[in-house]
Structures are given as C-alpha cells and as structure tokens.
C-alpha cells in the first residue's frame, strides 16, 4: 500500500509540474509574440517589457536588426521555402514609407551574383523524397522601352534537366555555403544569356530578383549574394527577434519583415496598365 501510495504521489507531482511547465511555456510564447506585434504596430520597446497582471506576468525583450546593405553580404531567408513559393531579392532600396529609392547608394548595379538553394546534405539527383529542388530566377528590370522580365531555370539533377531543359551546368553542390546552411549555388550573370540584360547600371535598372523553388517535397533554404566583394544588395527588411520568459521558461520568435512584393500568382499573369487592348 505504501509503494502504491508513493507511486500515485510521484505521478501526481509529475503531472502538476508538467502542467505548470506547459502553462509557463504558453505564457512565454505569448509574451514573445506580443513583442513581435509591438514592433509591427510601430512601437519601439526598449529593454525588458512586462505583460500581464498579478501573478500571471511574463516579460519580453525585442531586438530589431536591419538585413542587407553591407558590401558582399549574403541574404538568406530566415525560414525554409516550400515548393512553388516565390521570394524576392530587392535590387532597389526603399524609403521609410516603403516607396522605392532609385538614388539609394547601396542599390545593386552589378550584373553577377550567386544564388543559393537547398538544405545542406540534400542529394543532387533525388527524384524521391527528399526530392532535389530546382530553382527559377526571374529578374525584373527597366530599360528605355519600359519594365521587362528575364527568366532562367536551374536544376542540379542532370538526368531530370535532360527532359525539362533546365540549366544544369555550372551548379556547384559542395554544400556548406552561407555559414554551412545551403547545398547548391550557381553564379549567374544577368548581362548574358539567358537573361541578356544590357546596359545594367547605365541604360537598364535592375529592380528585383524573384526566386521560386520547384519539385521539392520539403521546405528548402534559399538566398543570394553579390558576386563581387564590393557589390551590395540594398536593405532587404528587418529581422525582429523577441524572447519571452515566464518563470524559468524562455521562448523565442523571429519574424523577417520584408518590403511589400507581389504574391507568386502574379508571376504568370499578364497585366495591362493602359487602355489599349492586349494582342498576340
């Protein structure tokens, strides 16, 4: 009877402790989210901020870091990207009201850059899970005749590229790129085929590079970097990190607040901004 009693008491204490830890974890996470929302709503909290009343208080501490704007710096999205999802690298900086700043001294005016994709350890030839991701890169630019798109697609899987006609040459798959995070990379020159954008920095202005992952069945990392060590991507946004705490439990939430961009559906939609009808 004593053994049974002790066993029941031990289990009861364990259950109570787990319930307390679950509650503290929930409070810490909610506090971390409150910190994120405080920044997104325009507040600038400094130091530790307490939320809640009475014995149900929690705290959060927020840091805000500008992403991009340094010479030769790689920009990697802070979360893995799913199949057919599109992310955007800005070549043009932004003003405080999110409008484009064509006179930003850190605007990217070079033609060559690295593109990175795939989780470290991802095999190059997998057609079954984890399926090797291919990459579509679409440059948005403006020349004397107006805004234009130039597109190329890359596939590390050489056998698959033979049938889909993607580019497989020049793709490096050594892994460990951008702080040992990404598996594949390729140098692309926007002034040569298949992009063939002429007059970059003089008669043509680069606006953005849209990157889309194809084929992958699991989220994969994605990023880009100027090829020249002295070349610069403008600021891409800000990384908001909020750490919430309740008791001895800590939870951290990170959000990349990037500049507004069109959703992926618009990559294959024609839009006519004039009153003239479209013709084939």
Descriptive terms for the model:
alpha+beta; 280 residues; four-stranded antiparallel β-sheet; Jelly Rolls; 2 domains
Provide the CATH architecture of the largest domain: Sandwich
Percentage beta strand: 25-35%
Described by the principal axes of the CA atoms, the overall outline is: globular
In angstroms, what is the radius of gyration?
24 Å
The percent of residues in helical segments reads 10-25%
Helix count equals: 3
Oligomer: single chain
Unreliable stretches covering 5 or more consecutive residues:
none
* Total number of strands: 14
- What structural category arises from helix and sheet content? alpha+beta
* Helix and strand element order: HEEEEEEEEEHHEEEEE
Largest sheet: 4 strands, antiparallel
User: Class of the largest domain in CATH?
Assistant: Mainly Beta
CATH topology-level name of the largest domain: Jelly Rolls
Structure report:
The protein is of the alpha+beta class and 280 residues long. It has two domains: 1-68 and 238-258; 70-235, Jelly Rolls (Sandwich), CATH 2.60.120. It has three helices and 14 strands. It has helices at 2-40, 158-164, 177-180; strands at 48-51, 58-67, 75-76, 86-90, 93-94, 100-101, 112-119, 134-143, 146-154, 182-189, 205-214, 222-226, 237-246, 249-258. The strands form four sheets. The protein has a four-stranded antiparallel beta sheet. Strands 3-12-7-10 form a four-stranded antiparallel beta sheet. The model has no long low-confidence stretch (mean pLDDT 90).
Topology (elements, then pairings):
Elements: H1 2-40, E1 48-51, E2 58-67, E3 75-76, E4 86-90, E5 93-94, E6 100-101, E7 112-119, E8 134-143, E9 146-154, H2 158-164, H3 177-180, E10 182-189, E11 205-214, E12 222-226, E13 237-246, E14 249-258
Antiparallel strand pairs: 1-2, 2-13, 3-12, 4-11, 5-6, 7-10, 7-12, 8-9, 8-11, 13-14
């Amino acid at each position: 009877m004593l053994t049974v009693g002790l066993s029941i008491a031990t289990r009861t204490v364990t259950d109570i402790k787990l319930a307390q830890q679950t509650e503290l974890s929930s409070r810490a996470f909610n506090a971390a989210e409150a910190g994120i929302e405080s920044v997104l709503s325009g507040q600038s909290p400094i130091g530790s901020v307490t939320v809640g009343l009475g014995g149900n208080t929690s705290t959060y501490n927020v840091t805000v870091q500008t992403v991009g704007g340094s010479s030769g710096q790689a920009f990697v999205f802070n979360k893995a990207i799913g199949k057919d999802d599109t992310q955007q690298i800005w070549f043009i900086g932004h003003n405080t009201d999110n409008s484009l700043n064509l006179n930003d001294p850190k605007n990217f005016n070079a033609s060559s850059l690295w593109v990175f994709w795939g989780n470290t350890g991802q095999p190059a030839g997998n057609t079954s899970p984890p399926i090797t991701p291919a990459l579509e890169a679409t440059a948005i630019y403006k020349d004397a005749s107006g805004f234009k798109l130039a597109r190329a697609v890359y596939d590390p899987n050489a056998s698959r590229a033979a049938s889909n006609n993607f580019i497989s040459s020049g793709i490096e798959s050594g892994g460990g790129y951008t702080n040992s995070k990404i598996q594949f990379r390729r140098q692309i020159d926007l002034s040569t085929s298949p992009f063939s954008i002429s007059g970059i920095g003089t008669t043509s202005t680069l606006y953005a590079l849209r990157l889309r992952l194809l084929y992958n069945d699991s989220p994969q990392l994605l990023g880009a970097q100027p090829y020249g060590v002295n070349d610069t991507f403008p600021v891409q946004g800000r990384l908001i990190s909020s750490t919430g705490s309740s008791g001895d439990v800590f939870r951290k939430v990170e959000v990349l607040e990037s500049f507004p961009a069109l959703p992926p559906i618009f990559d294959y939609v024609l839009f006519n901004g004039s009153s003239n009808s479209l013709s084939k």
